[in-house]
Amino acid sequence: MVGLGYINVEIQLTNQRNIHKRSLFYASRLYEGQLGEKGKYKTLTKVVAINLIDFNYFQSEDYRRSFGLKEDGTLEPYPDDLLRLHFFEMLKFRYLEQNGKITPNDRMAKWLRFLTNTDDTRWDEMAKQDPMLELSVEKLRLASMDPEIRMQYEAREKALKDIESIRDDALEEGKLEGKKEGKKEGKEEVALTLLKEGMDIQFVIRMTGLSKEVVEKIATKLDN
Hints:
The protein is α/β, with parallel strands linked by helices and about 220 residues long. It has three domains: about 100 residues; about 35 residues, no CATH class; about 80 residues, no CATH class. About 50% of the residues lie in helices and about 10% in strands. The chain has nine helices and four strands. The chain has a four-stranded mixed beta sheet with strand order 1-2-4-3. Helix 7 packs antiparallel against helix 8 and helix 7 crosses helix 9. The longest helix is centred in the last third of the chain and has 26 residues. The two termini are about 35 Å apart.
């Protein structure tokens, strides 16, 4: 949660053809989950979904798409702009950047470079580009010193690699569209690994795409 509402960040490396529904589902759950049993509607705050996807999904040539609720005729925004979905297509972003089609003062481009940076020597350079980036770099350094946060980061990296490996194996065997049971079993193995590492159920659901019921069942077996 942030001062103005709730944010859900989703990362997808492969096109499962459901990112638009997946993003809306998790954003809606964040909105619904604020109320609780005795909550009041006036306490509900804005939910923003940020999706970083490493494939092309929309027909637009721009790398970013933003969706919100609007009136059909006048395009008047829904009161309070309570739900917004952002999608950033990294393939298009890299293509536009390599061809010099992104302006130097594009603040969103700076954030995407920050979020996808893997070169530790570039943090200081990025921090100088924007005051908020400087603050983020400092928080990142503090987080890297926390053993628990470091463990979560490493578990996430392992999960992403395992999921990618499952996908590659399926491609090689010609089973990406068929034989879904084998792919499901592979994801369950990833879920089991994450749970053994102490990751919470919601984190495992986001990383694997498995249902809450399946993950909870795996967690119950692990406890026993």
